[in-house]
Amino acid sequence: MEAESEPYVRLATMRQLHQAVADLNTARSLADTLQSVADGIVASLGYELACVNLVRPEGDLVIAAFAGNAAAEALITGRVGSRDSWNRRLSMGEAWGGLRFIPHTEGWVLLDDDVPQWHTEGPEPRFEDEWHPLDRLYAPMYASAGEGDLLGVISVDRPRNGRRPGAWGREALQMYASQAAIAISNARLRANMQRALVRLEREQQALRASEESFRQAFEYAPSGMAIAEMGGDQQGRLLRTNDALCRLLGRPASVMRRYSFADLVHPEDIGTLLRTSAEGGRAELRLSRRDGTYLWVSLRNSVVADTADGPRFLLTHVEDIEERKRHELNLAHRASHDALTGLPNSAELKSRLSARICERPNSSPAATAIEALDAAYGDVESSLTHGYQADGYEGEVVPGGGPFDHHVHTVAPDPEHDDGTKGLAVLFCDLDGFKSINDRFGHHTGDAVLIEVARRLSTCVRDGDTVARLGGDEFVVLADGLGAADAADLAVRLRNAIIPPIRVDGRAVRVGASFGIGWAECGMTVEEVLRSADQRMYVEKRSRSKVHRRAG
């Protein structure tokens, strides 16, 4: 019968197939496309039941769409069959081109596997090509013309004419399965693109929100913030500063963009800035204000990175620490200076003196310039065996002096023979008659006398010299680069500065002063240097008549 009307069957089937494929391409979502695939088989290809089994990401197949029977649709839609069971089915029965037909004579073994099934009871076939209720016909769908990955399987049941499909019916079903695979792939692509667009829009919204949050945090931060260029010709140039930093430095944002932190840092702190690392670096330094003053700040760096191009900008947090620094400096000054006179105290004096002498005794004065250099820097020949390596200065710096330690040894002039040698003079001063002032007029007057003596001593020395108070009525002056005669002249000037009357509360009081001149020399300890000067001060005090020492 089919052979006699084949041209008409083909024409009608082609029209229906064309309409079914057109319906596939009008579906708006993946779910609509899958349902259209099932509906098109029932409406256009002459089957009463159609089911679309879709491959899930893990490989099993789920019934994604059903057409032809509402009860069956409600019962099995969404149920899953294992990939192994489906592979078994697609290897059984007869291969009709790209289709797989399993006759009821073989399919009975599949009744108990895990693939969801729906079938109706019916009579045994009377003809060879009559459809049996347990016959199974599958149309696999592949990603690329039968050569790609399996997308799913279309299963059909109960042809309306009651017979197994002929050659043209089989070809029509195979063509439809191929077009359905394309439609499903396109629907998946559209779905993925839609999800990607939604995700991109959300990411862009999150990015805009993050940028706005950063902008507000940057602009309205209570402490200074700056963004600087990293790399290139504009390395370190300030690109953006917030209001707090502009107020801190007294410069408008338009002016700040002309500078880098290297342009604003105090000259003494430039090394600290250059040593501060970009990522996580911290530094405490001084930045210049518009009025020319300097402000102590704390810098904290972090890198703003670009995932594609790497580090792009340097974000710097600038905190005003002027008050804290002032407090720290005040504490340090109080720890190293006498509270009454403001002079360096005993600890600071010993620290400065210790910095000038080392433990290694100095040899006799060098006779030549070459010997003087050897004395100052260490003998070059011996240094090669002590520390200088072929790849650089890796030698050990010996405590108290060593090869290439750049320590110029301190030597003492000969008081008996002035040969032009200059040294570090240590003048130990003890006030004469100070105890009687304390006893007669009280500690208030005594303190005022000490303050005035400290002032007079400080005005008589050079910049770089040290006037310190050891305690009580004892003072020490460190004066470098003096010969024996120079030190004696300085002692006379200092004594003459102290002798004039000192007025306290309308009363004039006088103190005298005894000086002992000692010399700091490498190989001596700080205590030995001070003890030597102290002893010479007492020798000088005893040698002077009591009249010359009396004060009051």
TrEMBL record:
Residues 422-552 form the GGDEF domain. The keyword Coiled coil applies. SMART domains: GAF, GGDEF, PAC, PAS. It holds the Pfam family PAS. Gene3D superfamilies: 3.30.450.40, 3.30.70.270, PAS domain. Residues 281-333 form the PAC domain. Residues 186-213 form a coiled coil. The keyword Cytoplasm does not apply. Residues 210-269 form the PAS domain. Keywords: Coiled coil. This is Diguanylate cyclase. It comes from Streptomyces badius.
